[in-house]
Amino acid sequence: MQADLLIHADWVLPVDASDSTLASHSLAVVDGHIAALLPRAQAEAQIDAAKTLELPGHALIPGLVNAHTHSPMSLLRGLADDLPLMTWLHEHIWPAEGRWVDQEFVADGTRLALLEMLRGGITCFNDMYFHAEVTARVCAEAGMRVLAGMIVVDFPTRYADNADEYLRRGLELHEHYRDHPLVRPAFAPHSTYAVSEAPLTRVRTLADELEVQVHIHLHETRDEVQQVLRAHGERPIARLDRLGLLGPQLVAVHMTQLEDDEIARLADTGTQVVHCPESNLKLASGFCPVQDLLAAGVNVALGTDGAASNNDLNLFGEMRTAALLAKGVAGSANAVPAEQALRMATWNGAKALGLEDTVGSLEVGKAADIVAVDLGDPHTQPLYHPCSQLVYAAGSHQVRHVWIRGRQVLRDGAPLTLDPPAIIEAARQWGARIAQE
Ligand SMILES: CSC[C@H]1O[C@@H](n2cnc3c(O)ncnc32)[C@H](O)[C@@H]1O
Ligand SMILES: [Zn+2]
């Protein structure tokens, strides 16, 4: 076999059906896709590669999928900390966004987020923010995979005056990127408390027609559920169910307030859940019953949320927090074991985003979205179980190489498609302007 690239690694964790850890294996890439994954001796005998990479002490894992974020909010990191969701949002974040968010803010904020995410092994993310056309363009330029949110809220902003205009701008984005290999549009109505019934119904019809995902904040806090119950006489999940929005296309983010019948309904409909453990902890939003959801057969992925409520975009941190928190919430040390946490950050994320045929595991035929992690670092020595070290001990600084669709975007920890000094200088200037007011 002729390959473009052959990588020899000490371990490969493909996140396959049996959660295998393969020692001394090699992975071949042809035309941006995984063409072979086999023992090193066989690879050496069978594969003639244009380029070969030796990675002793490294583990290869699938690119991590950040299933919920607001990438440009990296420029608001640390602006308002230690507040509950509604105070944080209404008194700090929405006023700051009203004052500062324009296309330049989104371009600079997205680049800062990409720098952090690529360095931390994230190769795909699900975004919800204003000016998604700018985020999409920046991602396409940097070679990053993204689900770009076609946002909808009821209130006017500098981006759009009303729901019709939000949808019109979203549909333009869809038209532009419908066949792009890395950028995929998805609807992103903010929540059931900020989007009324008519636009939600329209989103449902359009999402069916265009076959795209619908990404929404749902049951994030007790206050949210009470507010919707008071205003409409039903809980947010019931509202979406009545509007026909529950199902495999719905990506429901946070889900800290769930009753048993709601968990059963999510499982019956195949609704996707995204767990954001660190954002939920920081805003004191509540605890997502991850173990109960998984036991009921619900797909649960992981997200960071925005950097203004986390305050980082680090899925190694989320895997660890998710695994630890699940044990505390379920009162059981075997809730969310390391293999499950890695699966949530990879395969489950891909499935939530409707990308499970393309990414999420290192299997022949899938896109070559690959991350090489150096386990020789003191943080991960000695090494009994690679997966355990990745989830419970590794830091994102141990990510050395990243490929997306076969293109190398990080080499020896250095980004190849982004300009770090320029990105950091732009972020510093935004910080100085925003802090002055
Ligand atoms: C319509 S663009 C997205 C909108 O969502 C806001 N946001 C960020 N994090 C959260 C969160 O955890 N819950 C609710 N809303 C959030 C963000 O500031 C944008 O305005
Ligand atoms: Zn969010």
From TrEMBL:
It catalyses: S-methyl-5'-thioadenosine + H2O + H(+) = S-methyl-5'-thioinosine + NH4(+); S-adenosyl-L-homocysteine + H2O + H(+) = S-inosyl-L-homocysteine + NH4(+). SUPFAM superfamilies: Composite domain of metallo-dependent hydrolases (SSF51338), Metallo-dependent hydrolases (SSF51556). Coiled coil: none annotated. The keyword Heme does not apply. Substrate binds at residues 97, 190, 220, 305. Keywords: Hydrolase, Metal-binding, Zinc. InterPro entries: Amidohydro-rel, Deaminase_MtaD/DadD, Metal-dep_hydrolase_composite, Metal_Hydrolase, MTA/SAH_deaminase. Gene3D superfamilies: Metal-dependent hydrolases, Urease, subunit C, domain 1. The keyword NAD does not apply. Zn(2+) binds at residues 68, 70, 217, 305. Residues 60-409 form the Amidohydrolase-related domain. Its cofactor is Zn(2+). Signal peptide: none annotated. Its EC number is 3.5.4.28, 3.5.4.31. Belongs to the metallo-dependent hydrolases superfamily. ATZ/TRZ family. Catalyzes the deamination of 5-methylthioadenosine and S-adenosyl-L-homocysteine into 5-methylthioinosine and S-inosyl-L-homocysteine, respectively. Is also able to deaminate adenosine. PANTHER family: AMIDOHYDROLASE-RELATED DOMAIN-CONTAINING PROTEIN, AMINOHYDROLASE SSNA-RELATED. This is 5-methylthioadenosine/S-adenosylhomocysteine deaminase.
